[in-house]
Amino acid sequence: MRAYERLEKRFERLGNLYGALSLLHWDTQTMMPRGGAGARGEQLAALSVVCHELLTDPEVEKLLDEAEREGGLNEWQAANLREMRRSWVHAGALDAELISEFSRARSACEMVWREARPANDFAAVRPGLERVLELVREAGRAKAEKLGIPPYDALLDEYEPGGSSEKIDRLFDDFAAFLPDFLEEVLARQEREPEIPPLGGPFDESSQRQIALKMMETLGFDFDHGRLDTSLHAFCMGMPQDVRVTTRYDENDPMKSLLTVLHETGHALYEQGLPRRWRLQPVGQSCSTSLHESQSLLVEKQAGHSPEFFRFAAPVMREIFGSSGAAWEPENLYRRCTRVERSLIRIDADEVTYPAHVILRYRLEKAMVEGGLEVKDLPGAWNEGMRELIGVVPPDDRDGCLQDIHWYEGLFAYFPTYTLGAMSAAQLFDAARREEPEIMSGIERGDFAPLLDWLRKNVHEKGALRSPDELISEATGRPLDSEVFKRHLKARYLSG
Amino acid sequence: MRAYERLEKRFERLGNLYGALSLLHWDTQTMMPRGGAGARGEQLAALSVVCHELLTDPEVEKLLDEAEREGGLNEWQAANLREMRRSWVHAGALDAELISEFSRARSACEMVWREARPANDFAAVRPGLERVLELVREAGRAKAEKLGIPPYDALLDEYEPGGSSEKIDRLFDDFAAFLPDFLEEVLARQEREPEIPPLGGPFDESSQRQIALKMMETLGFDFDHGRLDTSLHAFCMGMPQDVRVTTRYDENDPMKSLLTVLHETGHALYEQGLPRRWRLQPVGQSCSTSLHESQSLLVEKQAGHSPEFFRFAAPVMREIFGSSGAAWEPENLYRRCTRVERSLIRIDADEVTYPAHVILRYRLEKAMVEGGLEVKDLPGAWNEGMRELIGVVPPDDRDGCLQDIHWYEGLFAYFPTYTLGAMSAAQLFDAARREEPEIMSGIERGDFAPLLDWLRKNVHEKGALRSPDELISEATGRPLDSEVFKRHLKARYLSG
Predict the structure, then answer these.
(1) Which residues on chain A are in Cβ contact (under 8 Å) with B17?
(2) Which residues form the active site (chains A, B) (predicted)?
(3) Mean predicted confidence (pLDDT) in A296-325
(4) Which of A384, B80, B229, B385 is 20 to 30 A from residue A124's alpha carbon, by CA?
């Protein structure tokens, strides 16, 4: 057997074990009884170690070198080999001691954070975060050495192959310059509009679930290869041939679960559309984290926040809830879901201000990784950034730098993917609409096939064959920039 | 680190991976969408291979030998070491080629059986079963060589440590001699009784589930460490600290789900009561398959088919179903659930005739493993055995030798554990009642604590510290025999 084929065998095995790991994670969030948490943590750790050993076995490096020398691979195999090496670099860059130290420090810090956030006690979690940052810097240096790029970019590469802070700076600086005046204008315009009448309610969970299932079906979700459940935090998890979406239901606000389900179904359609032939191999996975986010935001924000979508959704919701009145007119649902405000909390933010929340975090975490910002100065830097970017200052750290779990559980260089995803979504949706004029009229009729067909062909079926940059360029005719996204915001929030 | 401690580390890892495997199995039966089956099969296979490699690694044999030489172990450690060796022997006795050949043959045979049973087509599955039997014989010989006992006993040892067909023959022959006249008498007596009025119905699933949950809670099931779901075939799966029970619901017969839940909760209480300190080690698992079955049958048949239980359960069920009338009197529920008949199907059989179904299968499979019976002669031998043991002959193979999946999926030497379990249940329950006079009056009040306390102390908390024989002797003052079971049947079905 050739070296490449032996690698495929090993990654097939790994792919199956990753599938098992995913199921354990899914169950933890959806089904597991409370008292099972301790044992589950140990099962996850044991299985992760097995995967890590399989991937960092010295045999793998030899096979990678040999397969690269052998050559003779077709386009998919070559991309697969490239992705194999990338997984191997990220898994092998950190030595066993750093991994276990990092894992301990993250768990400890996250546990303190769970208490510190509601208690608004940044001082309590500061030592934990300092330790985490110290290890993140160490990991960044180790990966930087392997990849020959700066530490922040080396951390970013795990989520965004080939991504660079230079490119991100350009996109984000441009948007940060655009936002203040634009936001001012949107808010002024919004103030002149009539009030939106209340929806009524409460709206029982089983009706909300019925709507969610109907929407998923309409979008093209395949229930033979997936399901919908409930969890505290919504997510989508794709094991090959089995893609699981979760949401939660707020009896007072049925729009939340609707939009959450659109978002997670966007992720799910990507997973269900990945190339079957390569489902256990690295090249059969999603292209990058930002591309994954682009698929959820494309469905939720680009398609799902359009007036056309609400013309389809309004009668469906009215019928299932037995509701009526002005609040349930498509125009009013649209206006309700596209309200903009200077908010403190990222996860509640609208489409216009969300990027500013991300830009803040990106700038801070980059400075922390590079050594230009220390943990003790984080709250001050946070508040200063909020004032500058969004024009509000948090009254306390609870609604400031303590609000997101990411850093406290050791996740750095992940935040920018949210906004890269939003920009990619705008650019992809724009290209799709230009190529397929049926898309918007389809959405209005509840027919998502024209959109899904375009996404399947231009994004989903490509897996990780291309880099994110190449994929966007091929699909839209130009590299990713912030122009189409800004144009989209102007069209939605300032015209019509 | 001493060899014993290194073994504990390895088995801890294995225990965690077994927990992950269990979750994959549970999910397959309860949650998995249909189209996920193929990928799940591959995940299960990949994880099983990892476990098998960890257990059969040459290092393990060296460590076992060394730990046995080292000595210096306390009682639990020594028992753990004994169980480690047993797992290792059973895992390592078959070479990789035989395992994969066996796995292929079983899957192929089972798939044909799924069509052959409804089609009443034994000829179709005959070649598949012949191949499976050939490999079972080979496995029996391989294990026999390692253990120095006959092949059937060597296969049995995986489920019943130290079990032997000589002991089983004695118990089963005795019961087979007792049954014909006894059954005649029970049926004659039953015929003289008045008819049982119908329950009414249908009984909706959600009320049945409410009753099931109430019963589980009453029995002492800990919902912080477990849950109840629905599946086509009921089962109980214990991952450490997380024990999952399933049932199914028949809208026309609410007694089925009630009794199924009692049965599975008996298994679950055993799992929840196993010694926490040893939860990932072999000695922390159940003592044997028959002991596991004894716990389910003790709850379902010994306690749950008693007049006292129905005096507790009748008002609970009446209230939840909103039912009333003579059928819902405790006495009539008791009579309904203790009907006896000469049935063709094992899984529908009553407490009196069930052992005969098992004895038939035990005798046939033993003869098949030893070479005294060939697959081609199975249907004839089956019908002959049914006539002799139960007094009825199946009209076709569908309700004859095609009815159970066990052999067709390669499971031999498992059947006797059902009836060893029934006999153990009778003997344990009898001892418990003699030691704790409060047990029956507790059950009548819906207080299972006196029974559960006794089981915790005498069975659950011992894990696999003792052999099944030792455990029964210590708990009941005598080795397992069929006397107490026969006495129980006489008391329940011929007196009062």
Answers:
(1) 43, 46-47, 50
(2) 264 (proton donor/acceptor)
(3) 98
(4) A384
Stretch 44-83 of chain A: residues touching chain B, C-beta under 8 Å: 45-47, 49-50
The stretch B293-315 carries a mean pLDDT of 98
Which residue of A lies nearest to B48 if distances are taken between CA atoms? A17
Q: What is the mean pLDDT of residues A67-94?
A: 96
3-state class (DSSP) for residue A12: helix
Q: Is A1 on the interface with B (CB under 8 A)?
A: no
Chain B CB contacts of A227 under 8 Å are 31, 33
Task: Look at residues B445, B398, B392, B3 and name the one whose alpha carbon lies nearest to residue B180.
Answer: B392
Q: Extract the tokens encoding B320.
A: 């939840």
pLDDT digits 0-9 by tens, B456-487:
999 999 999 999 999 999 999 999 999 999 99
A267 is in an annotated binding site: yes
The DSSP annotation for B39-98 comes to HHHHHHHHHHHHHHHHHH-HHHHHHHHHHHHH----HHHHHHHHHHHHHHHHHHSS-HHH
pLDDT score at B232: 92
Chain A, nearest residue to B276 by Cα: A39
Could you identify the residue written with the tokens 């049982």?
B196
A263 is in an annotated binding site: yes
Residue among A20, A31, A225 minimizing CB distance to B36: A225
The fold of the B165-496 domain, in CATH, is Neurolysin; domain 3 (1.10.1370)
| Placement of tokens 């006196």 in the chain | B450
Q: What is the pLDDT of residue A96?
A: 84
Q: Which long-range contacts (CB under 8 A, 24 or more apart) does B457-460 make?
A: B458/B428, B458/B431, B458/B432, B459/B270, B459/B273, B459/B287, B459/B291, B459/B294, B459/B295, B459/B428, B460/B269, B460/B270, B460/B272, B460/B273, B460/B274, B460/B295
How far is residue B481 CA from its own chain's centroid? 18
Q: Residue B244 forms beta bridges with which residues? A: B227, B237
Instruction: Name the token pair of B339.
Output: 């009907």
- Catalytic residue at B370? no
Residue B281 has pLDDT above 80, yes or no: yes
Q: How confident is the model at residue B240 (pLDDT cuts 50, 70, 90)?
A: confident
Q: What percent of chain B shows pLDDT beyond 70?
A: 100
Cis upstream peptide for A379 (omega within 30°): no
User: Does the beta carbon of A239 lie under 8 angstroms from any beta carbon of chain B?
Assistant: yes
Using the beta-carbon criterion (under 8 Å), do B16 and A43 form an inter-chain contact?
yes
Tokens 């409370």 appear where? A34
Check whether A100 has a pLDDT greater than 90: no
β-strand partners of B245: B228, B236
> CB of B225 within 8 Å of any CB in chain A?
yes
Q: A99 vs A221, which has greater pLDDT?
A: A221
Instruction: Domain ranges for chain B, please list them.
Output: 3-156, 165-496
pLDDT greater than 70 at residue B189: yes
Confirm or reject CATH 1.10.1370.30 for domain A205-342+418-464, answering yes or no.
yes
Query: How far is it, in rounded angstroms, from Cα B241 to Cα B239?
Result: 6
Closest chain A residue to B279, measured at CA: A39
Minimum distance, in Å, between the CA of residue B16 and any CA atom of chain A: 5
Give the full edge-to-edge strand order of the sheet including B226-230.
B226-230, B242-247, B236-239
Give the helix ranges, DSSP H, for B192-220. Answer: 205-219
- Across the interface, whether the CB atoms of A32 and B223 are under 8 A apart is answered no
Q: Given this model, what pLDDT does residue A496 score?
A: 64
What does the pLDDT look like over B72-91, one tens digit per residue?
A: 999 999 999 999 999 999 99
Exactly one of B8, B158, B160, B264 is catalytic; name it: B264
Answer whether A206 touches B (CB < 8 Å): no
Q: Which amino acid is at A342?
A: R
B206 at A interface, C-beta within 8 A: no
B467 touches chain A (CB under 8 A): no
| Pairing outcome for strands B236-239 and B242-247 | antiparallel
> What is the C-alpha to C-alpha distance for residues A1 and A7, in angstroms, rounded to an integer?
10
